[in-house]
Design brief:
With 369 residues, the protein is α/β, with parallel strands linked by helices. The chain folds into two domains: 177 residues, Glycogen Phosphorylase B (Rossmann fold, 3-Layer(aba) Sandwich); 164 residues, 3-Layer(aba) Sandwich (Rossmann fold), CATH 3.40.50.2000. 40% of the residues lie in helices and 15% in strands. Helix 7 crosses helix 12. The longest helix is centred in the middle third of the chain and has 17 residues. The N terminus is likely disordered.
Length: 369
């Protein structure tokens, strides 16, 4: 920060594990890729990674965040990842009068699966206090932006949308065009892998297999239960737990996929969807949050995938049966996926849009109390 004026830089406050590619997440990927891309479109970044058990850190994590914010000069433009900011309004809000604060919301805190109602309400209240105090909120999909405005009664003018970018990728080779299913997501209750296993058990007459690619350590009890269900249902030869992959390994997993699945209970966007479409792979996903924004449509209005109600194993099984038995549907979905993939914006385009948002909110004068 010493080599540049506060007005020339955006300080991006991130979770401490943002660079851990061995345990990837959509939020961390978004943050990391924006930090890499923003300087190239004219917005220098000061990356401030703060370690803590976000969104509910202990005293040490809270103190780290307080010190990090206090160290920033008055008038600095600051974008804080919502996982860091939204659970600790008492730490963040006092800086809202001297810093140009914005918050990037990847997923509302109370939408995490498995929270009891009281805990969820507490997190929701903390998030509301934070988002109402800052001058800008950035959401990752139009659907998520509208939901935040309604949920926290925010002024629509304070909520902007910057969807994730995507990397160009070669078209996936697939296997036989039908049977190889891929689910790229941390194996956690929110991602709904148990629903997919239940759906697969209803399709024993079809040669479908699924590879779960994603962290196996974030919810170990859930993983154990899922493995037990796979054994109990006799699906051991049809379900693979490959763990997290990145780089060439992840590319290879996509290249061998005929269909990508995202059976989540909550998503604000679903970057896995666009990663699949960039490779011409159709998608079957839960119709939650901004997934429909990510899926989009081809130029002729055809959807490049199928959306089903979240948590409904029967509906998911029915969609997979249609996929496996209707060659015409598969052909139409692949054509639409290719068309939609060609229209997706790369990360430098997403960074340009975030730069425009930052320029608008930093242009408003600020008065230090």
């Amino acid at each position: 920060m010493r080599s540049q004026q506060a007005g020339d830089v955006v300080a991006f406050v991130l979770p401490g594990n943002v660079d851990d590619v061995t345990e990837p997440s959509g939020g961390n990927t978004y943050d990391r890729r924006m930090c890499e891309s923003l300087p190239g479109v004219g917005l220098p970044v000061l990356q401030v990674a703060v370690r803590g058990s976000w969104p509910e850190p202990g005293p040490t994590g809270r103190a780290r965040l307080a010190r990090a914010l206090a160290a920033l000069p008055d008038h600095t433009t600051v974008l804080v990842d919502g996982l860091v900011a939204c659970g600790v309004p008492d730490v963040v809000v006092p800086h809202a009068r001297r810093l140009r604060l914005g918050v990037l919301v990847h997923l509302p805190l109370a939408d995490e699966t498995g929270l009891d109602p009281v805990h969820a309400a507490e997190l929701d209240a903390c998030e509301r206090a934070t988002l109402r105090a800052v001058r800008q909120v950035v959401a990752t999909s139009p659907t998520a932006a509208r939901a935040l405005v309604r949920r926290h009664r925010l002024a629509p003018s304070t909520v902007e949308v910057v969807e994730p970018g995507v990397d160009l990728a070669p078209l996936a080779s697939g296997t036989d065009g039908v049977s190889r299913l891929l689910c790229v997501a941390a194996v956690t209750p929110r991602k709904g892998q148990d629903v997919l296993v239940e759906a697969l058990a209803k399709l024993r007459d079809l040669p479908l297999t699924v590879d779960f690619v994603g962290s196996l350590t974030r919810a170990p009890e859930y993983v154990d239960e899922l493995r037990w269900s796979v054994r109990r249902l006799g699906l051991g030869d049809r379900v693979t737990f490959s763990g997290p992959k990145a780089g060439a390994e992840l590319d290879a997993a996509y290249d061998g996929a005929d269909l990508v699945l995202l059976p989540s209970h909550a998503e604000t966007y679903g970057m896995v969807v666009t990663e699949a479409l960039a490779r011409g792979i159709p998608v079957v996903a839960s119709d939650v949050g901004g997934v429909s924004d990510a899926l989009g449509r081809s130029a002729d209005g055809t959807a490049p995938g199928l959306l089903v109600p979240s948590g409904d194993a029967g509906a998911l099984a029915a969609a997979l049966r249609r996929w496996a038995t209707d060659a015409g549907l598969r052909r139409d979905l692949r054509t639409a996926a290719l068309d939609r993939g060609n229209a997706l914006e790369e990360w430098d385009g997403a960074a340009r849009r975030l730069t425009e948002v930052v320029a608008r909110w930093r242009s408003v004068p600020i008065k230090v109390a």
